Amino acid sequence: MIESVSLCTDKSSVLVCTDRGGAMANLLVMISTASILLCGAIFGFFYAWVCSTMWGLDQADPRVAIAAMQAMNASVRNITFFPAFFLTPVALALTALALFLFRQRQAACWFMAAAVIYAAFGLGLTMLVNVPMNEALAKVSPVPSDIDAARDIWAGYSGRWQVWNQVRTVASGLALACAAFGLTRLQFTGPKAGS
């Protein structure tokens, strides 16, 4: 069990340190763990598209694949998805800031690296590439009844979408690994013997 951590602040050029005991150390572990869980959730979401969803849609009738993808893209905008997708970089950055303030600089650097990686290549890439592709596919209405026309639409969409999804999956996995490694970099010291 983590026993203590000191919070040091500079007040009028005098360094003031207060021992918050195990509660502050446990709080740092809890916020770090929450950030890691959000990273894991979004990594798992992207990974599921890589290893099952898109492969399954590619095997289906392209008319069904287009309609199914349109439905999934419309349904993903929900309160359950919001925290993992949008709040992961916020949680990681706030965790990094808290760790930095409590002199956990190594851990803070790893959490900030995770925040930057996910913000750029998970969230940012999705907004710049995948979302516009999804919006373009949503405009295919009605879905062509001609299988060849539907096959052309799906072929133009699926391959490119999957490449960029794989990039954001790898990036999210890397962010998760950075955050998990950051947790291992936490360094706490217990009370000195005889105190």
Q: What are its keywords?
A:
6% strand, single chain, two-stranded antiparallel ribbon, 75% helix, 195 residues, mainly alpha
Structure, explained:
It is a single chain. This protein is mainly α and 195 residues long. 75% of the residues lie in helices and 6% in strands. The protein has 5 helices and 2 strands, in the order E-E-H-H-H-H-H. It has helices at residues 21-59, 62-75, 81-101, 105-138, 147-184; strands spanning 6-11, 14-19. A two-stranded antiparallel ribbon has the order 1-2. A hairpin with a 2-residue loop joins strand 1 and strand 2 (14-19). Helix 1 packs antiparallel against helix 3 (81-101) and helix 2 packs across helix 5 (147-184). It is elongated and about 70 Å long. Residues 1-5 and 12-19 have low confidence and may be disordered.
Report the sheet-strand fraction.
5-15%
N→C terminal distance: 18 Å
Counting DSSP E segments of at least 2 residues, the number of strands comes to: 2
Helix content: over 70%
Number of helices: 5
The strand line-up of the biggest sheet is 1-2
Structural class: mainly alpha
User: What does the average pLDDT come to?
Assistant: 89
The largest β sheet comes out as: 2 strands, antiparallel
Shape: elongated
